[in-house]
């Protein structure tokens, strides 16, 4: 069953956060932080559900657990008092969001090459 995550929308937000040629304004950073937090909160249960499933412990399972712990830790942090610390916080949120996005079951399906009958 496919998840209901809009990966394209999330990737656009991540790209906005990570690919800025100049330091964004405080208002832009607050908007990006809010968007990334929403995306992370949507992704957490998807990744957590597959990590909670009993099964053999693998490197992939351990990386999902690490990413979940890192996401929870970053969500507990705040942007700090200055513009630079706010930008670094948004950067951390974007990287965690990208990692969570990559751990979705649907992401592995999307990464598989299409099998053709030719």
Explained architecture:
The relative contact order is 0.20. The chain is mainly alpha-helical. Helix 1 (7-18) packs antiparallel against helix 4 (83-103), helix 2 runs antiparallel to helix 3 and helix 3 packs antiparallel against helix 4. Helix content is 72%, strand content 0%. The radius of gyration is 16 Å and the shape is elongated. The protein contains 5 helices and no strands. It has helices at 7-18, 26-52, 59-76, 83-103, 105-111.
Write the layout of secondary structure elements.
Blueprint (H helix, E strand, L loop, with lengths): L6 H12 L7 H27 L6 H18 L6 H21 L1 H7 L7
Helix pairs in contact: 1-2, 1-4, 2-3, 2-4, 3-4
Observed structural traits:
118 residues; mainly alpha; 5 helices; elongated; disordered C terminus
As a percent range, the share of helical residues equals over 70%
Structure annotation, total helices:
5
E-strand count: 0
Q: Which percent band covers the strand fraction?
A: under 5%
> How would the global form be characterised?
elongated
> What letter string, H or E per element, gives the SSE order?
HHHHH
Class per helix and strand makeup: mainly alpha
Please tell me how large the radius of gyration is: 16 Å
Largest sheet: none
Distance between the termini: 27 Å
Rounded mean pLDDT score: 85
Low-confidence stretches: 111-118
